[in-house]
Specification:
It is a single chain. This protein is an all-alpha fold. It has a domain of 150 residues. It is built from eleven helices and no strands. Helix 4 runs antiparallel to helix 8, helix 6 packs antiparallel against helix 7 and helix 7 packs antiparallel against helix 10. The termini are far apart. The N terminus is likely disordered. InterPro entries: AH/BAR_dom_sf (IPR027267).
């Protein structure tokens, strides 16, 4: 029998529209998030009776957010090649110091020091200068920082969604959930009906109006995000094109240092013929010896 843990882990992630809460592990919660009250939004609320269109819209938005989180985190990891640095870039504001991989800079510094040590006391020897390689790796280090900054600018529409815009929607949904909960409690307690009549009381009308206003505000924010989905896709496409151009530029910078392929060895005149004659004579002797042994048997 499968354990209760394995049964729960095999289920797909629930939407916040289903259980009234927010998924754990949303990208950016543990990082620097400018929106206040994120911890409040993470608290689960009791299951509420959403309207069908609201439930579907909230569910789709949560799934879209989850996919955007995974895509953005993967692109950041590809860009800076460090998980810690990638997680720090989950905000819409680009840092003043870009956390790039220091490999090119370390290579440039190492070769510069190595060349100075190599030349010490060996002035009579003619050594190839490492200065071109030092300059090339230094140039790649500078270009890499510019490239990462450019890619962060390109992905701003997607980054702004996961770090800012979604949380505006989450706050509006939280307000709507509270209003809906009060409305249901009011209706279940029959406080919305005037005594001796079927007309709603003043308090019932006020609660219903608050719920409708919260719903309208939430849907306005959701529709704004939906319109921007095309810009999210376009910025990712632009990111891939610029990544391809970056690798081409690296190849251009490193092209002068590509070593020539080793020339294939060509035997001197007559050398190949002599070897072939020796080989053929040995083969004939072995063949004759084998034939004599077989005939004696």
């Amino acid at each position: 029998m499968a354990s209760s843990y394995s049964t729960r882990s095999s289920r797909g992630p629930k939407s916040s529209a289903d259980d009234g809460g927010f998924q754990k592990g949303f990208y950016g919660i543990n990082g620097t998030v400018h929106n206040k009250g994120i911890s409040l939004l993470k608290k689960k609320k009791k299951k509420l009776h959403y309207e069908d269109d609201i439930r579907a819209n909230c569910k789709n938005m949560d799934h879209y957010k989850d996919s955007a989180d995974k895509l953005h985190s993967a692109l950041m990891l590809l860009l800076v090649e460090s998980k810690a640095s990638a997680d720090s870039l989950a905000t819409s504001s680009i840092p003043s110091k870009i956390p790039v991989d220091p490999g090119y800079q370390h290579c440039s510094d190492y070769l510069a020091v190595y060349e100075s040590i190599q030349k010490h006391g060996l002035k009579e020897l003619k050594l190839d200068s490492l200065d071109p390689i030092v300059k090339a790796t230094k140039k790649l280090a500078d270009e890499q920082e510019k490239y990462v900054r450019m890619q962060l600018e390109t992905l701003k529409p997607l980054t702004k969604f996961i770090s800012d815009e979604y949380w505006e929607f989450a706050k509006a949904k939280y307000v709507y959930q509270n209003a809906l909960e009060k409305f249901e409690n009011n209706a279940n307690g029959n406080k919305s009906i005037r005594p001796g009549s079927m007309e709603p009381s003043a308090s019932g009308l006020s609660v219903e109006k608050t719920k409708d206003d919260a719903k309208s505000k939430m849907m306005v924010i959701l529709n704004k995000i939906t319109v921007k989905k095309e810009s999210h896709a376009l910025c990712v496409i632009q990111f891939s094109k610029q990544a391809s151009d970056w690798h081409k530029n690296v190849g251009v910078v490193l092209a002068p240092f590509n070593t020539k392929p080793t020339e294939e060895y060509k035997p001197k005149a007559g050398e190949g013929e002599a070897k072939s004659l020796v080989h053929s004579s040995r083969t004939k002797k072995v063949h004759r010896k084998t034939s004599k042994e077989n005939s004696s048997r």
